[in-house]
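So, can you check these tokens?
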Amino acid sequence: IDIKENNIYFLNERNTNGIRICLDCFIIKPDRTRHCKVCKKCVLKCDHHCFWINNCVGHYNYKYFICLIFYSLLCS
């Protein structure tokens, strides 16, 4: 994929300055970030997309996902 922005061609995620650019949403992508195809956004420390909660399990909601699994197992 060739993307021309400010006379720099991005052939992969990293350009010559070491900055990562998401090839799907074209924003600066921090380290440990993955683009979710279902949510169509970049998620920090994305583990997976959960269809039960209809959201990505990542850095900010990992605790709540584990609690959901634990309480589901406890109730069943």
In short: The first helix runs from residue 62 to 75. The mean pLDDT is 82.
